[in-house]
Write a structure and sequence with these properties.
The protein is an alpha/beta fold. It is built from 9 helices and 12 strands. The protein has a domain of 57 residues. The two termini are 30 Å apart. It binds adenosine-5'-diphosphate and magnesium ion (MG). The site of magnesium ion (MG) has 2 residues, from helix 1.
Length: 256
């Protein structure tokens, strides 16, 4: 667990006059489970969206698996802007689970999971189906394969969202507040699945969450974001029981 699989170096991100990431330095090691906590608007989702190449950056650099996200090596050692091919390759390393599930409403549960592996990875329908059924089993939804998203509870939808992300065999899984749109009684079933994945040694996980107790249980490291920077980071033990920054203490006392 020594190599950085994700690395942000002095990353700047602005929307008009608003600086969202302010020379952010941030890295995650292969296999590490990292939680990001912090107030609304502090740039947490932006970090995940940049990794998914849903947003560009205004300065600094982002590397995934040792390769720059926005550039590629042109062969002579210099860097050129990323081609669509390079971006596709880099995106293939990551899967993302969204707050609002983002399932395809007109497709069955199983098809939601098999669509991208067939279209993007070129799996045969039979292979994708088999893998899809295994993943539904993993998230406890083997009996829901033929349903449509509208027939599922929020907790079930999110478990499909997790299975769909895993179907692309990412080495990094990103979660953006995966339980914050759920009724309280449905949160546990989703956290259970995420907790199961956290036991997978090889999978790198980056989780933005308000579930402090859960973050504490599953994370190797917790980062407190504040105004586009990491204000404080440490083991869950350090950060939750003995934060060194007043700002962290303030935030935690408001949410715990
Ligand atoms: P968090 O996830 O920590 O709540 P975000 O990363 O979503 O924060 O957003 C950080 C800031 O950037 C917020 O003030 C938000 O309003 C702003 N922001 C995010 N996306 C956009 C966008 N596409 N256009 C303009 N402002 C944005
Ligand atoms: Mg957010």
């Amino acid at each position: 667990m020594s190599e950085d699989i994700i690395r942000f170096d002095k990353v700047e991100k602005r929307f008009g006059d608003l600086t969202v990431l302010n020379k952010l330095d941030f890295s995650v090691k292969r296999g590490e489970k990292v939680s990001i906590i912090g107030p609304s608007g502090s740039g947490k989702s932006t970090v995940l969206r940049i990794l998914m190449t849903l947003e560009g950056i205004d300065g600094g650099s982002v590397t995934v698996d040792g390769e720059p996200l926005w550039h590629e090596n042109s062969g002579d050692g210099s860097l050129k802007p990323a081609s669509e091919k390079h971006l596709r390759k880099m995106r293939g390393k990551l899967g993302m689970v969204f707050q609002h599930f983002n399932l395809f409403p007109h497709m069955s549960v199983l098809r939601n999971i098999t669509e991208a592996p067939v279209k993007v990875l070129g799996l045969s329908k039979a292979e994708a189906r088999q893998r899809g059924e295994e993943l539904l089993e993993l998230v406890g939804l083997a009996d829901q394969a033929q349903k449509f998203p509208s027939q599922l509870s929020g907790g079930q939808k999110q478990r499909v969202g997790i299975a769909r992300a895993l179907a692309m065999r990412p080495s990094i899984l990103l979660f953006d507040e995966p339980t914050s749109a759920l009724d309280p009684e449905l949160v546990g079933e989703v956290l259970n699945v995420i907790g199961k994945l956290a036991d997978e040694h090889d999978l790198t996980m980056l989780l933005v969450t308000h579930e402090m107790r859960f973050a504490r249980e599953i994370s190797d490291r917790v980062c407190f974001f504040d105004r586009g920077k990491i204000r404080e980071e440490g083991t869950p033990e350090e950060l939750f029981t003995d934060p060194s920054e007043d700002r962290t203490r303030e935030f935690l006392s408001a949410v715990l």
